[in-house]
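User: Hey, quick favor. My workstation is busy. Could you predict this chain's structure for me?
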Amino acid sequence: MSDRWVIHLPVIAPDLHRARIFARSAARLLAGLTARVEPGGVTVSAEDQQGVRHWVFCDRPLPGGARCTLPVDHTAPCSRR
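Assistant: No problem, here it is.
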């Protein structure tokens, strides 16, 4: 059995765009409170299609080992902020 557990917290949003905005905000807030939050792994899904997940953050690797923290659909170069 794993030593890691994942929290699934359903939150209702009216559409994919607003679900991603809320998820980004919640992940950033929680990441500021504890290093145990992995924002790059945040996804959202429709309530009746929870197996179809949509990424929230880009999470591409950056030089030096950091990850991109911009929204998944960004058009600017990847960045930590």
